[in-house]
Amino acid sequence: MTEKSLSRRKFMMASGLGVAGAGLFSTPAISSGARQWKMVTSWPKGAPGVGVTAQRLADRITTMSGGKLTVKLYAAGELVPALEVFSAVGGGTAELGHTASFFWQGKAKASVFFTTVPFGLTALEHMAWINQGGGQELWDKLYQPSDIKPFMAGNTGIQMGGWFKKGLNSLDDLRGVKIRSAGLGGELFEALGATSVLLPPGDIYPGLQNGLIDAAEFLGPWSDRAFGFYKAAPYYYWPSFNKPNGSAECLVNRTAFEGLSDDLKAVVANACQSENAFGLSESDWENARALDDLIENKNVKVRQFPADLLARARELTPGLIDNFVSGDAMAEEILASYRTAVSLSKSWSRVSRQPFFAARDA
Hints:
By secondary structure, the chain is of the alpha/beta class. It has helices at 8-12, 50-64, 85-91, 123-132, 135-143, 183-191, 204-210, 221-227, 254-258, 262-297, 307-325, 329-349, 353-360, and strands at 35-41, 69-74, 96-99, 148-155, 162-164, 178-180, 195-197, 215-216, 235-238, 247-253, 301-304.
């Protein structure tokens, strides 16, 4: 599906009005004994980035299984609301979900670490932690009580800082601003003096239009352009101190997953891994193209966050995260592992990526 074939109606469809499905695992056998699974998502249908990734993942599983496991995708609101994907998968309304983990901090506090953390791991560093540093095992442990098996399944890469109706000249200009944000990034904006508002993706643009919010951070230029945020908030800020990574997750009902044959389990796992790598490369390419278009053709004002705002955000972040996990043993365990990964990544980045970029772009 191309960007040109996507209608605005699809992007702006309501995300919170779906009716939850009833019953557990309606997976009637086809004549060959194949299975049919439902995938619910937190995204409007076909939205560049996350919506495209979700559909491609469903198609990958269907194709790689040779039709033995077919997946039908339901966009946000079609079967369940955008922010009820976790409950729908854990409860058996759907076998699969495509979403972002930081939506579930009310159910599992440490879930935020598996999408992104302010001043934390970048996309490749995050993947290294999950695959090599014990992150996957901790993620599995966190979701097991909800009967969910998680996989990385797409990544929108480093984000932009957000869209603002008015320009920011200092930290003081952020005070009182109502900004759509999620996860620990939202907590940090609150600590900086803003008011964080969690909205499903499909409700962000209407919220900017009707004054419910004054600013919004979502993903990167490719996805943000498709939603039309620039029409309501022309100031686009960088760097994304609050979202240096954009890992999406595929949620699989653990009971349903364990009921698969070994070859179909491998299909699901490898489809997620393939889409995770492909989605990241796609986002990096399309974000660059979209940013050029926004600047050259959409009159977007791309600006750097004020130095005092960034300095204060960096100062507040360690204590904010410590307070966030305090008293939750699972969250404290995951934070310790995450910080080990950050420290290791920094030591390598100082002699690899950082000096290379400085030399290349000088």
